[in-house]
Amino acid sequence: MDLIVTALILTVGFVIFFTSLVQRKLKGEKYPKCLPSFPLIGSLLSLRSNLPPHLHFQNLQKTYGSLFSLMMGPRYVVVINNYQYAKEVLLKKGKLFAGRPSLVSTDLLSRDGKGIAFANYSPTWRFHRKLVQSNIYQCGNGLETLEELICKEVTSICTMLEQFVDAPLDLMTEVSRMVTNVISLLCFNSSYEKGDPEFQKMLDYSQGIVETVGRDNLMDVFSWLQYFPNEALQTLKRSIASRDSILHRKFEEHKANYNSESINDLLDSLLKAQENVKNNNSPIPGPHLTDDHLQMTMADIFGAGVETTSTTIAWIILYLLHHPQVQTKIQEEIENNVGHERPPKISDRCNLHFLNATISETLRIQPVAPLLIPHVALVDTSIGDYTIPKDSNVIINLWAIHHDEKEWKSPGTYDPTRFLDTEGKYMHSPSPSFLPFGAGPRVCVGEVLTKMQLFLFFATFLQRFTVEVPAGHQLAGLIGKSGIVQQPEKFKIQLKSRKAWKGCVS
Ligand code: STR
Q: Which amino acid residue places its CA nearest to atom 11 of ligand 1?
């Protein structure tokens, strides 16, 4: 019975939607080409594909153009595949498109749209984002700089890895621990030793979330599916419960030890803001700073800080295994500019052009979030000369933008030199069709931190080691598993200590 009523409501919804579309067309408004769509299921038939969504959308633009629309069940979605439209949405009309859809999975993850990543546009969202932006790098009583903090973690992992040279190794658990420790020191002023069971629990829940949250998920298309037994939903709920038990404990500990005179980490700063709002000293009236809001903001920063950076490191290592000549070139550059008497520091960034170019080329060819997070139009607006009604979802296909043949020569070829000018100097963006961190009001909050970590890790790591494919192991492919972050398949590596470094360590 329930199903019939839902079906009826949806059909009526569709009829109203299409009638209004026809009326608007008669008024001379131009709409993006739409994939064939039917009542109830929307464009689901045209979305069936063996390819991951970003590749399927990239192919569809051959028929439908670089901007087209589709129906995800009852949801009207516009897909953008070139940088011109993407920049209009993210930058020029950034505020108009700064909304987020409410999806079953992201609502569960963010306790109904609290936090930063999945929260809709609101004064509370803006307040939290600003708070994080201005407080995230004030760590450890301000005694340590961000560079010192990262270098300590990088040195610690590299020293530990010395024990594991010359044998097959799954590097990623330790890389994740390093990245987790950097963000954990900034957020909670605490870190994890090798083998800490709480860290293992975090790896597990995070993987559970990555595998279930996001677009490739039918219950996000048809929200009523959440009421039926559903494995993805079970995994997601289990992972969230596990995350919440850790988060809750950290939160209560911080609350109990809170002292407004001694702010040691991001959570302390959020608690201070909460206190200010309670005492009405807040510069902005009325943003919500409930415990739930604070916890969700912490969860977002933590989840984003860990998953994105460790995935990028994994991709870079995998590409180095596929292109050993790139690794040799970076090592020569380190040799010539840093030597082996001292570890690299952030000021070396202006000399290690080839390393910078390799990091950027990997972010281009393998963007961590190939479809970003969907945006929502907050008002009736337009993209180019297309009319875009309020509440339309907008998906930016970053993959297509980074593989656009009009902008990149042989975009499928891995070639760091495309980020070098004729003198061999690193160029931030040889084409405007490069947005690895997004842009505009929703641009990645952690861009500076991520870039520093990637640079310091690879400069230090490649000064000491060479990575190789272990004998008898197959080289993992470059396709990856599609999801909210695009991760490579698991792979093993073998480390060789570099002669130059061996000779110099005490
Ligand atoms: C990873 C898994 C986890 O434990 C928590 C989160 C929440 C924040 C998410 C993160 C996820 C994946 C990467 C995201 C990030 C917010 C911004 C970032 C989606 C699901 C990107 O846009 C790449």
A: 303
146-161 and 172-188 helices, crossing angle to 10°: 150
Q: Is the CB of 119 under 6 A from ligand 1?
A: no
Tell me the pLDDT tens digit for each residue of 226-247: 777 788 889 999 999 999 999 9
pLDDT in tens, 289-315: 899 999 999 999 999 999 999 999 999
Residue 259: helix, strand or coil by DSSP?
A: coil
pLDDT in tens, 406-419: 999 999 999 999 99
Is residue 96 within 6 Å of ligand 1 at its C-beta?
no
Sequential DSSP letters for 308-369: HHHHHHHHHHHHHHH-HHHHHHHHHHHHHHT-SSS---GGGGGT-HHHHHHHHHHHHHS-SS
8 Å CB contact between 212 and 226:
no
State the DSSP H helix or E strand holding residue 466, giving kind and residue range, or none if neither. Answer: strand 465-468
- What sections of 136-279 are H helices per DSSP? 146-161, 172-188, 197-212, 218-221, 231-257, 266-278
pTM of the model: 0.92
Evaluate: CB of 487 within 6 angstroms of ligand 1.
Answer: no
Q: Is 70 in the pocket of ligand 1 (CB under 6 A)?
A: no
CA nearest 81: which of 449, 478, 403? 403
Which of 446, 358, 366 shows the shortest CA–CA distance to 182? 446
Residue closest by Cα to atom 5 of ligand 1: 303
Q: Is the CB of 219 under 6 A from ligand 1?
A: no
What spacing in Å lies between the alpha carbon of 281 and ligand 1's midpoint? 32
Which amino acid does the sequence have at 6? T
Query: CA nearest 491: which of 499, 481, 482?
Result: 481
CA of 304 to the centre of ligand 1 (A): 4
**Closest atom of ligand 1 to CA, residue 438:** 22
Ligand 1 in contact with 307 (CB < 6 A)?
Answer: yes
Distances (CA, A) of 88 to 152, 322, 374, 474, 475: 41, 36, 15, 43, 40
Whether ligand 1 lies within 6 angstroms of the CB of 304 is answered as yes
**Is residue 405 within 8 Å of 87, Cβ to Cβ?**
no
Taking the C-alpha atoms of residue 363 and residue 401, their distance in angstroms, rounded to an integer, is 12
Torsion of CA 231, 236, 242, 247, to 10 degrees: -170
